[in-house]
Amino acid sequence: MTQKTAFTEKKFIVTFIFVTSLFLLWGVAHSISDVLNKHFQNVLQLSKSQSGLIQFSVFGAYFFMSIPAGLFMKRFGYKNGVMLGLLLFALGAFLFVPAANRVSFPFFRFALFILGCGMATLETVAHPFIAALGQQQTSDRRINFSQSFNALGTMIGPALGSNLLLAGATGTGNLTSVKTLYTGIAGVLVAVALAFAFVKVPALSAAHELHADEAQPDAAPGKKLLHHHHFVWAAIAQFFNVAAQAGTWGFFINYGHDVMGFSDARAGNYMILFMAMMALGRIAGTWLMKFIAPNKLLAAFAFGSMVMCCIVAQGWGWVSFSALLMINFFFSIMFPTIFSLGLKSLGRHTQQASSFISMGVVGGAFFPFVMGLIANHNVATAYYLPVVCYLVIFLFAVRFYQVKQG
Length: 406
Description:
Elements (H helix, E strand, L loop, with lengths): L12 H31 L4 H4 L1 H24 L1 H17 L1 H7 L2 H28 L6 H28 L8 H23 L31 H22 L1 H7 L5 H25 L5 H19 L5 H14 L2 H10 L6 H10 L3 H13 L10 H15 L6
């Protein structure tokens, strides 16, 4: 008889809830950054390619911070890693106040960089943390479940941004709303950090080390991290995944304005539906993984994204806009599933591997700028570019995800 593997254990429930809440918090921050793209175009008179530097600042922080965060986590543990991430996150949000006072885009980018360092730390820590709160056999489902709350956060972000930023005036005086918004975010982050400080985290076994009742083989004990090809390909796939995400999200409001003729505020409100599609996709994906292998589901969703991007690029009114909404449904499971597949059977290398996969998020730093150069002329045509990214993810899911021994 085979025993059904539990989703998690009772002793981990409180910790699981707190760590899952982190996914929601950085989801809010990421999606508000996409609203800032259009807001700063209006307030600071930036071009589309210049506003793409917002994503460069946030995702560029992942390149610099992911490895130090992983080393910190390895030395001081998961809980202290979370505390460091929350404090950096809050500091970056507080820095929006002096940046708004100076009406300085470079200062805003510095604040976004510090905020991004906090998010990079949290992402580096949270994924292996969630994976460790139970057996490896159910780690894909746990990470996708927690990422569903990240999707909820990405719905809250546009709702806040559209109502507090895009619905107001376009002059520099409207930066007051930016200060109010980010001061509130910082306050929430400090409160969560204080609460988490009192949580007692149970002893954890090494993340993604296999239990005796699991069928997957152990990785070779003496094997170096870079010799695990499934990990290397996961890091590459994550680079292209976040590149596609940053570009697709960053110019969503521009697409609504330029192609569909929406006001900025209305386009921002449609972004809530856009993010709801991602939440729906993650809920559906978490359920489907009970019956379909994660890599096969990832391949199907990557193919769906490629088809949707090609339709979006045609600029066919509501048909293309509906396809744009569907991109986020298919995108939904990609980040957590790539992360989980990349961490399989790495044993003692898991925390270091998490750092490198998080570092791959730097793809989101460059892609919006490149898409912005095309979007300056035609925002619909710019959506051909993510097809290349989804093709790489498709190849990873079909062939390069496999764990090899020896």
